[in-house]
Backbone:
């Protein structure tokens, strides 16, 4: 008989670092999406998230998570709404770098642009 994972005891080292999700208001958090680009910005100690797609299409949105709350950021520069881009944090320049992805609208030709 297979063990039920829900019945497993949580190791002590996880009990101090992982807790139940905090309740969030409906506004002030990014919508559920797939294919977004995410990286950890070490110098600012935040998780940086851009874009992705949902059933309605997608949105040109950038969010950060500081471990407590989500914050939406607005930019004068407009990147194309995309899914499947890659993002990494450049430690030496202290910037996030995003490359490529695919546009959500036809023609879905892969993008080869780079953003910082």
Residues:
């Amino acid at each position: 008989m297979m063990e039920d994972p829900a019945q497993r005891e949580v190791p002590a080292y996880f009990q101090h670092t992982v807790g139940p999700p905090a309740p969030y208001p409906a506004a002030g958090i990014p919508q559920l999406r797939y294919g977004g680009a995410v990286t950890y910005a070490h110098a600012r100690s935040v998780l940086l998230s851009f874009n992705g797609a949902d059933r309605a299409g997608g949105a040109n949105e950038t969010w950060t998570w500081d471990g407590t709350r989500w914050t939406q950021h607005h930019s004068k520069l407009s990147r194309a709404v995309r899914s499947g881009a890659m993002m990494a944090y450049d430690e030496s320049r202290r910037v996030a770098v995003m490359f490529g992805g695919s546009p959500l609208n036809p023609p879905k030709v892969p993008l080869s642009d780079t953003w910082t």
Remarks:
- The two ends are 52 Å apart (CA to CA).
- The helical segments are 12-15.
- The chain has one domain: 34-115.
